[in-house]
Specification:
Blueprint: H1 2-17, E1 21-23, E2 35-37, H2 39-58, E3 63-65, H3 74-80, H4 82-85, E4 87-92, E5 99-101, H5 102-128, H6 134-140, H7 142-163, H8 167-176, E6 193-196, E7 200-203, E8 211-214, H9 220-224, H10 227-233, E9 240-249, E10 264-274, H11 279-295, E11 304-308, E12 318-326, E13 329-340, H12 342-351, E14 357-359, E15 364-366, E16 369-376, H13 377-388, E17 389-393, E18 399-403, E19 414-418, H14 425-436, E20 442-444, H15 450-460, E21 464-468, H16 470-475, E22 477-482, E23 488-492, H17 496-504, H18 506-510
Parallel strand pairs: 3-9, 19-20, 19-21
Antiparallel strand pairs: 1-2, 4-5, 4-6, 7-8, 9-10, 10-16, 11-12, 12-13, 13-16, 14-15, 17-18, 21-22, 22-23
Helix pairs in contact: 2-13, 3-12, 5-7, 5-8, 7-8
């Protein structure tokens, strides 16, 4: 755990030092669990969003996008169940006065058990070398099986208690496991209570006439209330999907782990409308499709796993998370949910408007079922950033910090560096920038020795550095250096665009799906 904590601290420090993420309102000592995306962060975030949008909308003929308002009529949140059921189970420590999510305390306890399993696997792998069969070891080793059985039993009991709203048993579980306050070690806990996560606000010219509203806690409901508008104007036939990205807001009392859990965050969601009775097949289809999207970025198949929900949300008949191995362990990155007809059915009931699809093949109308894919953009940002940050020992007894971002997502695709600030080299370099900037986000850097400039670009994840030297003036060639291998070669200036394009083109990456 210590190594994980150290790695995570490095990620947070790197994010600030190199212009990815800043604490919000930092000159006023910041605002808890609220962050600003800096100059490199906003580019990386935009690139992740575009990579998702192209895969989800542009490459699917039967999926379209919308951008619904953050403010919605308050009855929409009553219909969706958020007013009555959008709660977190919270527990206070009487000694430290700190508040925690009860379910997260238990999940963190289980994560420590899973860390023990990984430790056993690592020891066995070292002992047996190439002959090691991880799958067989995990399924037969008595100690690993005991750990897994313990973890499964704890999670099942937690899920059952939460589903039955048996908060007393959640507290009992925490006490039986002897879970202590992470900061003080105290085990003196209050009862568990439910806390609604929605932010309230007002709409109106005066306090007397103002309407009570909520900042949306998810983006999905904006899609559901627009289902019929999109279906009719787009002449959409089932099955079809509606996608959107946008801000959501949750009053997370126990927000933590940097940008993993924030009060203001961004979601990328798609609601796929289907014929009732086909949800099981589409649910499995979208689970695999979404995993392929993640794997296309080349961040390592071992860093992903599916986690099927024991406790289902009030709207779901099946649900699974794609979990990613963050520096603090496997945590939810994306959810795939079979939402049945709960949302459209409830909005139909509360609004008094029909939200049905007329199926010409069956010659009847029905309320469609829905399969949802929902990914946190900020969590995806953290997954990419933390997975990419590496410290490398080099052959000349030096080291470098390098951000090995998937090139398609890198904030800056190439940096153009004149070897010296004289002899006409800056002018040639500027001309190269002026040509490439129409196709890519490129940087110009002339400060410090070229080696130091390489290190600076490595740290922000720039895939290519292009150096203009005195030979460039003679033969129109430059040195192009690859971030990951540090390999350098001479190429013609007019070849640069094609070389960069091959590495950063979305088509190349998405074809891996």
């Amino acid at each position: 755990m210590a190594n994980q904590d150290e790695q995570f601290k490095k990620v947070i420090s790197h994010a600030k030092e190199y212009g990815f993420v800043f604490p919000s309102s930092e000159i006023y000592d910041g605002l808890s669990a609220v962050y600003d995306y800096a100059q490199n962060g906003v580019e990386l975030k935009n690139n992740i969003r575009q990579y998702w949008w192209k895969a989800m909308v542009q490459l699917h003929e039967n999926i379209v996008g919308i951008d619904a308002a953050i403010f919605m009529h308050p009855t929409a949140w009553k219909a969706s169940g958020h007013v009555d059921a959008f709660n977190d189970p919270l527990i206070d420590n009487k000694d430290s006065k700190k508040r925690y999510r009860a379910d997260v305390l238990v999940e963190d306890y289980v994560a420590k058990i899973e860390a023990k399993i990984e430790k056993e696997v690592a020891k066995a792998e070292k002992r047996f070398g190439e002959a090691f069969d991880k799958e067989q070891f995990v399924s037969t080793n008595p100690r690993v099986l005991e750990y897994k059985a313990t973890a499964d039993a704890i999670l099942k009991r937690l899920a059952r208690s939460l589903e039955n709203e048996n908060l007393a048993d959640v507290k009992a579980l925490i006490e039986e496991l002897e879970i202590a306050d992470p900061e003080t070690g105290s085990k003196n806990w209050t009862d568990v209570k439910q806390f609604n996560l929605m932010f309230g606000t007002k709409l109106g010219a005066s306090a007397e006439s103002a309407m009570d509203l909520y900042l949306r806690p998810e983006t999905a409901q904006g899609i559901f209330v627009n289902f019929l508008n999109v279906q009719k104007t787009g002449r959409m036939k089932i099955p079809f999907g509606i996608a959107q990205t946008g801000k959501a807001f949750r009053n997370e009392i126990v927000a933590r782990q940097f940008i993993f859990r924030m009060r203001e965050f961004e979601q990328m969601e798609m609601q796929f409308f289907i014929k009732p009775g086909t949800q099981k097949e589409w649910y499995e289809e979208w689970k695999q499709t979404r995993l392929k999207w993640h794997l296309s970025l080349g961040m390592g198949a071992d860093n992903y796993r599916f986690h099927d929900h024991e406790k289902l949300a009030h709207y779901a008949d099946a649900a699974a998370d794609i979990e990613f191995k963050f520096p603090f362990g496997f945590k939810e990155l994306e959810g795939i949910h079979s939402r049945t007809d709960f949302d459209l059915g409830n909005h139909e009931k509360f609004s008094g408007r029909k939200l049905q699809y007329f199926d010409p093949e069956e010659n009847k109308s029905y309320v469609p079922y829905v399969v949802e894919t929902s990914i946190g953009l900020d969590r995806m940002f953290l997954a990419v950033l933390s997975n990419s940050l590496q410290e490398e020992e080099l052959e000349n007894n030096t080291s470098r910090t390098v951000l090995k971002l998937p090139a398609v997502l890198a904030p800056v695709k190439a940096a153009v560096l004149p070897l010296v600030k004289k002899d006409g080299l800056p002018e040639v370099a500027r001309n190269i920038v002026d040509d490439l900037k129409w196709s890519f986000n490129v940087d110009y850097d002339e400060k410090d020795a070229v080696g130091r400039r390489y290190r600076r670009q490595d740290a922000v994840g720039t895939p290519f550095c292009i150096t203009v030297d005195h030979d460039t003036l003679k033969d129109d060639t430059v040195t192009i250096r690859h971030r990951d291998t540090m390999e350098q070669k001479r190429v013609k200036i007019n070849e640069l665009k094609d070389i960069i394009q091959q590495e950063v083109d979305m088509r190349t990456w998405l074809m891996k799906m």
